[in-house]
Write a structure and sequence with these properties.
About 40% of the residues lie in helices and about 15% in strands. With about 400 residues, the chain is α+β, with helices and mostly antiparallel strands. The strands form 4 sheets. Strands 5, 6, 7, 8 and 9 form a 5-stranded antiparallel beta sheet that branches. A two-stranded antiparallel ribbon has the order 1-2. Strand 6 and strand 7 form a beta hairpin. The longest helix is centred in the middle third of the chain and has 35 residues.
């Protein structure tokens, strides 16, 4: 079977990520659409267990957040060396082991054998049940139960019939629970030859990838690496801008809001993770968190939640000051993407992941999405240099309030 090169793209690691954000660049109301409430200073945190009002003007002090100077040491350019190394690594991942013959005559557990086999159901060969010149390591559980064990003790050159039954939950409905007979011929017992060095050849990439030759394969690798680098660049840039934003802006989280959000998080965490009947959060922490106490768990959540809330409040204050509103179509697309990522079929189920109920979860999701749009504006207006250190770039950073 041909395979395309599979490279896992690095996604944004922050709650306010680049994903599904397509809103405007700077200026009042630049994000377009509607959905933002009035511009009063008082706002509510709907993701908390209770509605907690707080005053953005009082609790957030905005510094000069436009034109932030950010430096990143990486240039995010794909080099020839990276292409060569990655092509080699990907090729080795898909390369089949090479074997050399042994003088061994009797099959034991752990041996690798070269075999032909034919599977029949009711005397008729079934699809996918026949192959020749196959290598199988006994004990690898590559075949259905009984196949590999049935070869233990058999001799090289011997042909054996294995009367077996497919599992009831087998992926093929036709074969699930079916009684079959595999006729297996053992040609030899081999061992892996690790002395042979892997070589990337035209025939190899033709067989394993959708490429005509090595040159085309490396071109595909280059394109994938460039995509990966661009995603990493976006993620790193947003992270670095956010770090600078936190340095020039201040936020004080009201204790009532922090307590409510921590309570809400722990409630959702417990509901999601403590699923065994009769189990408690204490039981879960003892088993999954190396005996962590509920008190220590709460302290950990408080630390993380306070930092998260400060960021949310700063971005919320910026969104309000800049007149940024939610584009409903963009928000819907974002929710759909997150539903796919989290394996949710219904919006209600996704929202419940972000709140104590669907209503609070939607309100919180909207707040995060609005913050993402605010960060977009800040990133678009930042002065970003690549291939330099942050210290060099931000030495003269102006942190005064706007």
């Amino acid at each position: 079977m041909n395979k395309k090169i599979m490279i896992v793209l690095l996604s944004a690691v922050m709650a306010v990520s680049a994903a599904a954000c397509g809103n405007g660049k700077g200026g009042k109301g630049s994000a377009g659409g509607s959905g933002q409430e009035s511009t009063e200073n008082k706002t509510k945190d709907s993701a908390a267990a209770s509605d907690v009002s707080y005053d953005l003007e009082k609790d957030v002090k905005l510094g000069k957040y436009m034109g932030l100077k950010v430096g990143l040491p990486n240039t995010y350019k794909v080099t020839k060396k990276q292409i060569e190394e990655y092509a080699e690594n990907v090729g080795q991942y898909y390369a089949k082991p090479t074997y050399k013959d042994t003088d061994k005559k009797t099959v034991e557990d752990g041996d690798t054998v070269n075999i032909d086999y034919e599977g029949k159901k009711d005397g008729v060969a079934f699809d996918g049940g026949t192959a020749a010149d196959q290598y199988l390591t006994i004990g690898s559980n590559s075949f259905i139960d009984g196949f590999e064990d049935g070869l233990i003790g058999k001799k090289v050159g011997e042909t054996v019939d294995l009367n077996l039954t497919f599992p009831e939950d087998y992926q093929s409905e036709e074969m699930a629970g079916a009684d079959v007979v595999f006729t297996v011929t053992i040609h030899k017992i081999v061992k892996e030859d690790k002395s042979k060095k892997f070589e990337l050849t035209d025939s190899f990439v033709q067989e394993n990838f959708q490429c005509e030759n090595v040159s085309e394969f490396k071109k595909q690798v280059k394109e994938n690496l460039e995509t990966m680098n661009e995603n990493t660049k976006t993620s790193d840039t947003r992270r670095a801008v956010l770090e600078q934003l936190q340095k020039v802006c201040e936020a004080t989280v009201p204790q009532e809001l922090l307590d409510a959000r921590v309570d809400s998080y722990i409630e959702v965490f417990t509901k999601t993770n403590v699923t065994e009947e009769g189990a408690t959060l204490e039981d879960y922490l003892k088993e999954k968190r190396d005996g962590m106490t509920q008190e220590d768990f709460r302290k950990e959540v408080v630390t993380e939640m306070e930092s998260s809330l400060k960021t949310e409040m700063i971005l919320e204050a910026i969104a309000k000051k800049e007149g940024i509103e939610i584009d409903e179509e963009a928000f819907k697309n974002y929710v759909q993407q997150q539903m796919t990522t989290n394996g949710c079929e219904k919006e209600e189920d996704f929202y419940k992941l972000n709140g104590t109920d669907a209503e609070s979860g939607e309100a919180y999701t909207r707040k995060i999405f609005l913050g993402m749009n605010a960060l977009n504006v800040i990133v678009d207006n930042a002065k970003i240099e690549y291939g330099v250190t942050q210290e060099d770039t931000a030495a003269d950073q102006d942190t005064k309030s706007e």
